[in-house]
Amino acid sequence: MSTHPDHYIKLADHAKKASHLKSVAALLGWDQETYMPGGGADARAEQVALMAGIQHEMLTDPKLGDLIGACTADTSLSQGDTQEAANIREMRRDYDKRTKIPAELVSALAEATSRAQHAWKDAREQSDFAAFKPWLDKVLDLTREKAKCLSDGHGELYDALIDEYEPNAKASEIEAIFTPLKKEISDLVLNIAENGKAPSKAVLNRPITPAKQEAFGRFVAKSCGFDFSRGRLDITTHPFCEGVGPGDTRMTTRYRESSWTDSLYGIMHEMGHGLYEQGLPLGQSHGQSGPHQIGMPCGEAVSLGIHESQSRLWENAVGCSLPFWKWALPHAKEFFGEVMGDQTPETMAAAVTTAEPSLIRVEADEGTYNLHIMIRFELERAILSGDLSTADLPAAWNDAYKTYMGLDVPSDKEGVLQDVHWSFGLIGYFPTYTLGNLYAAQFWAQVRSENADLDNQIAAGNFEPLLAWFRTNVHQHGRRYTPAQLCERATGKPLSNEPLVSYLKDKLYPVYGL
Predict the structure, then answer these.
(1) What average pLDDT does the segment 320-332 reach?
(2) What is the DSSP code string of 352-377?
(3) Over the stretch 362-401, which tens digit does the pLDDT of each residue have?
């Protein structure tokens, strides 16, 4: 029997019901991106809009505000470093934000983004930005309205949107982090280009059927700890991971026969997200005496930056390492056959450890990935403020890739249309990828300092100690702490650029003979 007061039990029950609605909406979105036929797009947009309206109504219900108020007034619950106090604090924060947004705007934005996603798929396939532009304009107009509601006329509109993904972050603060980081990474990439000797990447283009890629990717994900009895893997245009609900985490990827590591690292990236979702504390808060955390903040991921730290760390720090390939290569030879016969762990690790400018963000290497993010951060900040028109966006994109990467963009498909985020209305999302890399590097340095045998464990295919460290230091806390607090608790230091820059130099320079 619960020892919690009635108002807290009712709050948890309300949160759980709202979470079930969120799960239904997530299923609609997942289905749209995987199996839904194109002919269902219009009806699906109306379904998504209806669900968004119902969710918003439940999450802005005055009765919920009263319950939060009662729990806040109960100092035995709302004070101290407890899950209950964190849940009440974060639910107040969420409630105050949601009640600023009109229900009709929530529904309109949900319908527009659902239609925009379908339009983006067609436009991307045809490499036709002009066909997508009206939908992007619609999404941006509604997103600006949302930002104005959230900001109350204070500060930069972009800040209100970033806050949804990385609580308390500001565009100016991100710019202050990105500006020196951009120079350090640019200098690193330039040094490699001018003075390094590139390893052979030919093995990455050997033809391997999608069926074999999928089988190997599933094997790797399961070996790393992803529980397929509580998750699945499917195919989509743009890979993503969706935590639908307790016991239901869905990954997606895409396959190209002539570029088999795209799917492998796509799976490992989404697997990192999935491991976080599967590690969130959705059980009891105090043994068997407290309510479930389903729908409560302590049962949710703290931020997208922390979420991205998990995906980027498993994809890169683990998956692109020599210890990983000491374990994975014998298995790859079993799955792929003679096509891998001449490879060694050293040649494979070198082939996937590069710093070469490229056009496609999701296929970019560790050395250059953050430059892709910085370009998007600058562009979407400009289009949201009105300093850049959507009509001029493709040209601005192409100019940025020429300036930062030295690359000519041959088509909209390989340029401004490559990412799904803007059709989803995810303005302010992109900076969290680089924040995720910063968190990942700092976590990685810490876990290595605490576990001197980590390389040998990975080389033996024993990923459990690494996953256990994240379960203990990141996953189990949900939103109990802010991202900054979580980072400092886990590593003993505030977030900084130094671990990422050191990590990249230590990893890339030896491969290039520097």
Answers:
(1) 98
(2) T------S-GGG--HHHHHHHHHHHH
(3) 888 899 999 999 999 999 999 999 999 999 999 999 999 9
> If you ran DSSP here, which 8-state letter would residue 410 be given?
-
User: Distance (Å, rounded) from C-alpha 474 to C-alpha 314?
Assistant: 14
Residue 300: pLDDT band (50, 70, 90) is very high
pLDDT more than 90, % of the chain: 90
The torsion angles phi and psi of 208, rounded to 5 degrees, stand at -135, 130
Give the residue carrying structure tokens 């953050």.
370
Residue that is written with structure tokens 């599933």 in the block: 218
The residue ranking higher by pLDDT, 311 or 2, is 311
Q: Which residues of 293-320 are buried (b: 16+ CB within 10 A; e: fewer)?
A: bbbbbbbbbbbbbbbbbbbbbbbbbbbb
**98 token code pair:** 């949601």
Residue 398, phi then psi, degrees to nearest 5: -65, -40
pLDDT at residue 290, as a whole number: 56
**Mean per-residue pLDDT, 160-181:** 93
Residue the block writes with tokens 């300036």: 403
Gap between the Cα atoms of 22 and 201, Å rounded = 43
Nearest in space to 53 (alpha carbons), one of 24, 32, 31, 82: 24
Give the residue numbers marked as catalytic.
270
User: Which residues pair with residue 443 across a beta bridge?
Assistant: none
Question: How many C-beta atoms lie closer than 10 Å to residue 153's C-beta?
Answer: 7
Cα–Cα distance, 240 to 194 (Å, whole number): 36
Spell out the long-range contacts of 326-330 with Cβ–Cβ below 8 A and sequence spacing 24 or more: 326/458, 326/459, 327/458, 327/459, 327/460, 327/461, 328/220
**Nearest partner of 243 among 217, 278, 268, 269, judged by Cα:** 278
Q: How far is CA 467 from CA 62, 223, 234, 289, in A?
A: 41, 11, 23, 28
In this structure, are residues 251 and 265 in contact, taking their beta carbons and an 8 Å threshold?
no
Alpha helix stretches (DSSP H) within 293-365 = 304-312, 322-336, 345-351
Say which DSSP state 249 is in. Answer: E
Distance between CA atoms of residues 458 and 440, nearest Å: 17
Spell out the domain ranges in the chain. 6-165
Q: Which of helix, strand or coil describes residue 209? A: coil
What's the mean pLDDT in 137-159?
Answer: 93
Asked whether the beta carbons of 91 and 68 are under 8 A apart, the reply is yes
Where is pLDDT greater, at 140 or 284? 140
Q: What is the largest CA-CA distance in the chain?
A: 68
What span, in angstroms and rounded, lies between the C-alpha atoms of 195 and 307? Answer: 35
Residue pLDDT, tens place only, 414-444? 999 999 999 999 999 999 999 999 999 999 9
How many helical (H) and strand (E) elements, i.e. helices and strands, does the chain have?
22, 3
Type and span of the H or E element at 183: helix 171-195
Please tell me the distance from the alpha carbon of residue 384 to that of residue 258, in angstroms, as a whole number.
38
Helices marked H in 60-170? 62-73, 75-78, 83-98, 103-126, 129-151, 157-165
Whether residue 365 contacts residue 356, with contact meaning beta carbons closer than 8 Å, is answered with: yes
